[in-house]
Design a protein that fits this description.
Elements (H helix, E strand, L loop, with lengths): L1 H10 L12 H13 L5 E7 L6 H9 L6 E7 L6 H11 L3 E5 L6 H9 L8 E4 L5 E2 L3 H9 L5 E10 L2 E3 L9 E3 H11 L11 E3 H5 L12 H9 L4 E12 L6 H8 L1 H13 L6 H24 L5 H13 L6 H17 L1 H17 L4
Parallel strand pairs: 1-2, 1-4, 2-3, 6-10
Antiparallel strand pairs: 4-9, 5-10, 6-7, 6-9, 8-10
Helix pairs in contact: 1-12, 2-6, 10-15, 11-12, 12-14, 14-15
């Protein structure tokens, strides 16, 4: 409790660094210029693998955008269903759509890197839309209006609808332009995450061209890490509107990630690799201790839940080793004893955690 309290004391010193804009009047003028005059090209990419059930809705959402200066590349990752045929059907109807087909099946993050390599050299902005997600009609318009506000903006995000839940809140309204440095400080210190997913982001294209590969293919949460890395040298803009839809489905990579809890490993990795660029040495050590304690508490709960499969334990042992924290059986034993003590005092809490894990395990299966 003392460590958490001291962390909160430090985080109170974070300044509200949003930049006040004259907002509506300037926005309307800029919007009018973009919609009637020359507007920057947006390259949209969709990596797809066996998504015939949802791909038409995804493509239709791009076609329905109020902002129409875009090109669209669909990258088929050797689908065995009708996804490729669906993509070709739309490409025949609109010459802004083109199709790429991988010569061999790639892992998800590797395929995302292939997708970003397809962006047009003339594009000013780029956006990924996953094949099972879709965009609300004003998504591109609202994001480009924000991005055009200041040349220092490298990333634009917004609220998203995930199933029936509004996601990625946390920034005070309006705070539409925020220092990338401060966004990452709030993420590391307060766990305020506003980057969303790849579908919810618009990037300045030159930032994508400057990183190849754009995503770290060893990290399932490479989208978050890429945002943190880019934020060292650019600002962040946030539209306080729901502009994207993320589908929740049992066979998605996200559900598999939930089951193994790859997020806890991903967040620790981001802290170890990038934390020193945003935090003071004292803040970094506090965050490292906190995240390590949370990691071992999670492993202790998993042990008590009966997680014995080698894949689960090998994954987390490897990630702890890669980040220089290391896996300690003694620390796991101490965390397990502490968890048992909490279970004795509050059995209802432990039962809830067990049931939550069982529900996830029954739903998740690999892509």
């Amino acid at each position: 409790m003392e460590k958490v309290a001291s962390l909160r004391t430090i985080s109170r010193g974070i300044a509200d660094t949003h930049y006040p804009w004259s907002s509506n009047v300037d926005d309307n003028r800029l919007r009018g210029n973009l919609m009637t005059g020359s507007s920057p090209l947006v390259s949209i990419v969709t990596p797809v693998y066996n998504c015939e059930q949802y791909l038409p809705e995804c493509i239709e959402s791009v076609l329905a955008q109020t902002y129409q200066n875009w090109d669209y590349t669909i990258i088929d990752n050797c689908s065995t269903d009708g996804s490729l045929a669906i993509a070709h059907r739309y490409a025949e109807q609109d010459n802004r759509i083109r199709i790429c087909k991988n010569s061999k099946h790639l892992r998800a993050i590797a395929n995302h890197n292939v997708a970003f390599r397809q962006i047009s050299p003339e594009s000013k902005y780029s956006k990924m839309v996953f094949a099972d997600d879709w965009l609300f009609p004003q998504c591109l318009e609202e994001m480009v209006v924000l991005a055009e506000r200041d040349s220092s903006i490298g990333i634009v995000s917004a609220y998203g609808l995930q199933g029936d839940k509004v996601m990625w809140a946390g920034l005070p309204y309006p705070s539409r332009l925020v220092s990338g440095h401060e966004v990452c400080r709030q993420f590391l210190l307060e766990d305020t995450y506003v980057f969303g997913t790849a579908t919810s982001l618009l990037f300045r294209s030159d930032l994508i061209r400057g990183r190849d590969p754009f995503y770290d293919e060893s990290n399932l949460h490479a989208d978050a890490e890429a945002c943190v890395a880019l934020s060292k040298n650019c600002h962040f803009a946030f539209a306080h509107q729901i502009l994207t839809y993320k589908r929740v489905r049992s066979e998605s990579l996200g559900m598999l990630s939930d089951d193994i809890n790859t997020l806890i490993a991903g967040n620790l990795h981001i802290l170890i690799v990038h934390g020193a660029d945003f935090l003071t040495p004292e803040e970094f050590e506090i965050c490292k201790r906190r995240q390590t304690l949370e990691y071992y508490n999670f492993l202790a709960v998993s042990l008590l839940q009966g997680r014995r499969d080698a894949k689960f334990w090998n994954y987390h042992k490897q990630k702890l080793k890669e980040d220089g924290v290391g896996f300690s059986r003694i620390r796991l034993a101490l965390a397990t004893l502490k968890r048992l003590g909490r279970a004795a005092l509050n059995p209802h809490e432990t039962l809830e955690k067990v049931n939550k894990h069982k529900n996830r395990a029954s739903l998740a299966r690999p892509e």
